[in-house]
Amino acid sequence: RKRKRTSQFEDQLGDALLLMSSSLRSGLSLQQAMATISKDMYPPISEEFARAVNEVNMGYSMDDAMEHINKRIDSSDFRIVSVAIVVQRTTGGNLSDILNIISTTIKERAALKKEVKAITASGRTTGTVIGLMPVAITLILNVASPGYMDPMFTTPGGRFAIGLGIALEIVGLIVIRKLITIKL
To answer: How many CB atoms lie within 10 A of CB 8?
Structure first.
């Protein structure tokens, strides 16, 4: 559930940053812009920003409120936003422009993740088929010709062949997984 919530949060983050940037351009403070996100967007991002606004109202610093969101969500995308806000608050600069750039970057990164997932789909399917094929063939042979596979399970050479096949199958699946895993 946490992974799903983080994914939903990250999907909403780009739009939330655009809303925050527009709010800042219209003259609202950062806290007011965060309150706007909590009112105008859907959960989970609205809930997290509402918590942060409440924390600031209760006396926490904005930096602490951002850190608490980081701990609850554990999103690398939001970590970038949090660092940008903290750095901007200490050094100055145009936060609205910074948030626009981060929003664009996050949206492009999300599109790239989806594209990579689509491209690697055939590799994942191949891995699944290769992994299930020996089991399916063994079951089919046992049903079609009972007793045909008995030497594989009763003789030492057969057991060795089964063990070797399982080991090679695991190695093959690991290699396929390494080939289709792309970290962004």
So the answer is: 14
Give the model's confidence band at 184: pLDDT under 50 very low, under 70 low, under 90 confident, else very high: low
pLDDT digits (tens, 9 = 90+) for 5-59: 888 888 888 889 899 989 888 988 888 988 999 899 898 889 999 999 999 999 8
d(CA 11, CA 62): 23
> Looking only at Cα atoms, what is the longest distance across the chain?
81
- Of how many residues is the chain composed? 184
Contact 23, 32 (CB under 8 A): yes
pLDDT per position as a tens digit, 90-107: 887 788 888 889 989 888
Contact status, residue 12 vs residue 37, Cβ threshold 8 Å: no
Q: What is the DSSP letter of 41?
A: S
Q: Give tens-digit pLDDT for 137-182.
A: 988 988 998 888 888 888 999 999 999 999 998 898 888 888 877 7
CA 29/CA 21 separation, integer angstroms:
10
How far apart CA 145 and CA 90 sit, in angstroms, is: 76
**How far apart are alpha carbons 13 and 107 in whole angstroms?**
9
